[in-house]
Amino acid sequence: MIYLEHYSGAGRSPDATALDEAPLFSPDSFPTLGSNARTQAPTIVLSTSAASLPNPADPPQIDVQPTPSATPPTIAPSTTAVVAPATAGLESLTAAQLLIEAEQSLADGKSLRAYRTLSLLLQRKDLSVEERAKTFALLEPLAEKIVFAPHKHLALPAVTIKSGVTVEQIAKEHQIPASFLRAVNDLSADQQPELGDALKVIDGPLALHLHADREELTLWTNNGFARRFEWNDLPATLQNGPNKIIRNVNGESTTITLADIALYDSAAETSADAWKQLANLLDAETTMMISGVAQVAPEKIVAATASEAKVVSAEAPAVEPMLPEAEISPETLAPLDALRVEVFSPPKPIAVGSGANFGLRVINLSDKPAPNVSAIIFFSEGLEPVKIEGAEGKVAVGQAAFRPLTIAPRGHVDLEVLATVNDYGRQIYRVEVRCDAWDAHLVSEVAVSALNEAPQPPKLELSDKPEAPSKR
User: Fold this and answer.
1) Under CATH, domain 39-82+337-454 is a member of which superfamily?
2) Region labeled Disordered — which residues (predicted)?
3) Cβ of 347: how many Cβ atoms within 10 Å?
4) Residue 145: how many CA atoms within 13 Å on its side-chain side?
5) Least C-beta-crowded within 10 Å: which of 3, 33, 299, 335?
């Protein structure tokens, strides 16, 4: 049981032990709206890992809606969003200020905000050795609680198991390995949750980041940092950049490989501890971003003088000169923070049984066309999409996906989904926008209120009733 030491409390500080008192559900798992006329800001996930993001327009099999001939709907924008609500305004802070912000969030009982702040801080390249050590000291116990602790639904609301629903289906929906989902719910390899169980979910995809200079391997989910591992015996052939980790399960044997390098074999006894722990967490294919590998400087070539030149035989093959590597021009670089998303929600509570429009505007802030921008909206069980406008796309149960499109320089596109309200209470819809060419991933989660019945106009009572008119 990988959580035995964590839950036993052995050798743990009072601050770490206090995390066990965290509620089953985090109050800030989803941002609440002070007013329905305002929206929450999305997360921009830049390339901390080079994970390949799936195309949301592929699954499931759903009907295609025709492109409307009319102009895209005009939607009055609400609050402009660029970063996640849990980390809004933190990018401009120094590392020391972010640490203070995270400690204050922990003191205020806002563990999820502290977790996201520290995950953001850990990606900073300007961290000192002391700041990095302190970040890990605060972040690792939080990640164990938020990501791995069963029955603690702190990152996302739990999924209630219904008839016919399996772990594999839920894992596919959240882009996470089924083995990982089983691990965080303390389920065995062949065990399925029972009807009505609350299943803990984490958003994927998974990604690994190896800092070769520190021999440090970190595991990340789409929600943030998950776990750190030490990897001492690094292969000599590692190269900086994105690499694909392949996990293969053949009967009772599990192997993990990187290109032609064998990283783990369950039948061997010499595998690194890091891969033994990761063997049951990774997907069949996981991206690992490698950095910090020392690059070998090329040898300098000194031209020989005429007296030192040797005569080459006519039979000897001619050696082709080495061409210099092409320089990277500004035109070949993807612009940073060039996309922005504005999310629009109904300004007032919605009555059950009625329809409501949910929209978003994707803005290209750069002077280059934004290629293959895709958008998808996920709805909670109380909301059901029925129609899309603004671009071609597909509608399925609980989601609406727009086909990838190109946004002109300094231009924007308005997309809208008509959804019916089937249940009252607090409903959630989640917007995801991706541009793989620019390595951009924007996410926003918004809450709306649904009423059990339509709101009634207020009753007006007159304190002084007019006298009846006199008869003449």
Assistant:
1) Immunoglobulins (2.60.40.10)
2) 50-71
3) 12
4) 24
5) 299
